[in-house]
Design goal:
single chain, seven-stranded mixed beta sheet, about 300 residues, 2 domains, 11 helices, Metallo-beta-lactamase, Chain A
């Protein structure tokens, strides 16, 4: 299961009700901030989630509406909040801009208040935790090194509690050992193996987050069968030519991608303030009735069906 907290859902410039691009993906104790538009630190405070454990930032690309908040965030870490380590992941061009912003403007020769690491990445594995992975993939937008991120739980065999009950396996460490693939011995001498209480292998929850993109044909395989897809919807279909010109997506285009790839839950973000929200929702849901448009501070739980 993954949780998503939207901190900013506007495109290009903030509106009265929407901040600039930023969201947090949570998995148990792990937190990832994806993009950090202007004003993100205030959104973090207003959301109540706080700054603790917010030590990994994933950048989709280096456009200013996705990175300017890093300056204020670092300034806050220097004066008000404290974390032990901060890792900023992104493509080469995005990190070049971020390094100038943080090192030359904010720090201005001072030592950072934490262990600070700039991690240049390309498509491939970004994080490999005990029960999930984060993988970066290429996205087509204006400029090089644009990335999206796929969060995926590792496949596992579910524990069948009713079978364990029938075999007399007590609650506690012995059940944990069985889940971890180790046989156990009961008090009466019987040996119970993992195969006796574990079901068939099942894939985990899959969440895909796409930043700005002008194409979807190169994303179909990446987002296929995702339990959740977060993607931009800057324009309406009436302005499809403008969307192509600026390498952005329409609400209808996002819905068509989700349908083609069998996505379970589509969440639209990066909404232009030129449109009324109800018009964006109408276009989106006319193509995919289950899709939703995110607002700032919306919280979603993404989990595998069944």
């Amino acid at each position: 299961m993954f949780e998503i907290l939207f901190l900013g859902t506007s495109a290009s410039a903030p509106s009265a009700r929407r901040g600039l691009s930023a969201l947090i993906v949570k998995h148990n104790e792990h937190r990832f901030l994806i993009d950090c538009g202007e004003g993100t630190q205030r959104q973090i405070l207003q959301s109540g989630i706080g700054f603790k454990q917010l030590n990994r930032i994933l950048l989709t690309h280096g456009h200013l509406d996705h990175i300017l908040g890093l300056g204020g965030l670092m300034s806050t870490f220097m004066r008000w909040e404290s974390i032990e380590q901060l890792e900023i992941f992104g493509g080469k061009s995005a990190l070049e801009r971020v390094k100038i912003l943080i090192n030359d403007v904010v720090l201005a020769g001072k030592k950072p208040p934490m262990s600070l690491h700039f991690r240049e990445i390309g498509p491939g594995l970004v994080a490999d935790e005990d029960d999930f992975t984060v993988t970066a993939f290429p996205v087509t937008h204006r400029g090089p090194d644009c990335l999206g991120y796929c969060f995926e739980e590792k496949a596992r065999r579910p524990f069948l509690g009713e079978k364990a009950d029938a075999l007399g396996v007590p609650f506690g460490p012995q059940r944990r050992d069985l889940v971890n693939g180790q046989p156990i011995a009961l008090d009466d001498g019987r040996v119970v193996g993992p195969e006796d209480v574990l079901g068939p292998l099942q894939r985990g929850t899959k969440l895909v987050v796409v930043g700005d993109t002008g194409r979807t044909d190169d994303l179909v395989d990446v987002v296929r069968d995702a339990d959740g897809l977060v993607i931009e919807g800057t324009y309406l279909d009436e302005d499809a030519e403008m969307a192509r010109q600026f390498s952005h997506m329409t609400a209808r285009g996002a819905a068509e991608l989700a349908q083609q790839a069998g996505v379970k839950q589509l969440i639209l973000t990066h909404i232009s303030r030129r449109y009324r929200e109800k018009d964006v929702i109408a276009e989106l849901q006319s193509a995919l009735p289950t899709a939703v448009v995110a607002r700032d501070f919306d919280h979603f739980i993404i989990k595998r069906e069944g």
